[in-house]
## 1
Amino acid sequence: MNLERADLNLLVYLDVLLRERNVTRAASHLGLSQPAMSNGLKRLRELFGDPLLVRTREGMMPTERAMELQPMVREALAAIDQVIQPNRDFNPIDARRTFRIMASDYAESTLIPPLLKQLRVSAPGISLDIMTPSDVSFVDVEQGKVDMVINRFDSMPQSFHQATIWSDTFSCVMRADNPILQDYNLESYLASQHIWVSKTGMGVGVGVNPEDVQRLGWVDEAIGRQGRKRDISVFTRHYQVAMLLAEQSDLIVTVPTRMAQLASSNPRVVLREPPVKIPLLELKMAWSPLLQQSAPHRWMRRLILDVGRQL
């Protein structure tokens, strides 16, 4: 089999079939009859020498080969679409559109305000729809339903494009009259009670197991490497809430420094370096290969990276 024998329309059929996992819905999406769609699936199976979709009790399920093909097919179709589209420059000052961005609480508090300030000047017609990690799945991103995701990720599909916006250190935030300040060191830090805050990746969160140090994140892994652990009283997924709790109690919260600096002008709290070395945190931006060549998307990605560097 070679490209000359292949009908490239079949790649469109395959993309929709793997997304819908249903011949009838795929046919409706493409404006085809069900027999025509079934014939297209037959030709795809012959082309790739694989069943691609197999009927099970749970419906049509993709084979391993189909799962391998899916991101490659989508990227190929996006590239073809870019080739045949007229070459139009993107003019941000006249643009009217909404960018849907998934951002963690950390990114939303530190990156989005200066980004919005820049947009008001350079692209006043652009609006942002900020979504939380629990609102979005990797499938949503892969299909281009979300323009980009900004967070710190433990893992990410290999098909995604990504860029690092910045690296950040950690700082401790505590009440200005917290007794620990009289003798602040590793021993007093570990003897105090703490607020744990984190939400990496995407999807609906699950409960935390305080004994599973490896899943607690950067801070607790760093402490664990010294054979120690901290006493965590509150687990939350919201940085702003964590800092508010630290202000109103003797609890200590250890957060990314850019987040902690938002409270630097608050006389009721103080910031201190952690008494243990914690690896740098990387804030990343990721997006679907379907959007890689989009002119508006390229412009927004460059703007986000520029804003991050300025900070």
Note: Residues 11 and 73 are 7 Å apart (CA to CA).
## 2
Amino acid sequence: MAYRIVHYINQFYAGIGGEEKADVTPEIREDVVGPGLAFKAAFGTDAEIVATVVCGDSYFASNMEKAGAEIIGMIKKYEPDAFVAGPAFNAGRYGTACGAMCEAVSKEFNIPAVSGMYPENPGVELYKKSAYIIETPDSAAGMRKAVPAMAKLLLKLLAGTKLGTPAEEGYIERGIRKNKFFGKLAADRCVEMFVAKLKGEPFVTEYKMPVFDRVPPQPAVKDMKNAVIALVTSGGICPKGNPDHIEASSASKYGEYDITGVMDLTSDKYCTAHGGYDATYADADADRVLPVDVLRGMEKEGVFKKLHNKFYATVGNGTAVASARRFGAEIVGKLVADGVTAVILTST
């Protein structure tokens, strides 16, 4: 008998629409949809997709717990043997949703769950320990490569086959360490790797060290009296109604907002788009995240020359590092062009 698989996709791959349809609520179809056709071919007679869950990326990002519970309720009656989500490639909100649903389904039904993402997708960092995530290219152009690898891994998990290393199986390292016995002492293996490195020969380390960005601090502002200060935030502060539609999670954009003559970020005109913290206090007084009122007071006192007439905002919740770097580079270019001396960066 073939294994029963439930597949999760977003509104785009379901053929509903793009960003304009990202708020669609969860639905379930007893059919093979979108990438499911490729999975059907990859599974062959070993497994079949018995249902496809569709959910809008924005809806899921803004209602993670609610959406997760709704989807769990939908798929219970199908009694799945396994769950597959995506592949999401480098789509941040989609990847976060895929990872979250793999985690939820694994916990609820105790079944294998597999997704596929580009390594820089924020869903990887958030959920790599909860589910197996096949490494994919950064766009859907890699669909033919991603789907067979996901299907192969899922079938291995269902069969209880012992898995090889992440490199051998194609999934992203999960940060889970396991004991392994070697015929040589660690010192001998270490020397062999070192010699290979010196000779320029290939070798594989047994434990990769984490790599952290190191950003050297800028020198202090020498002349505060003549400084132009700007505000930038990852706390999601924006005009009421979020006119730029900055996503509550896994932001794909930032906003630029004019505060000429604005002395206070009042609740009737400003709010937060952020979905990663309780917005109650920020919505009541956005100055708690972006202190325009305090800086206006300091500007009046002559502590610095001028508060820049624009602020920049995005949402840091689940946002990909690559996206954050791009936002930063673009914002800095604009600030330098406007003659800004220094920036106060606030978060949550």
Note: Residues 224-346 form one domain.
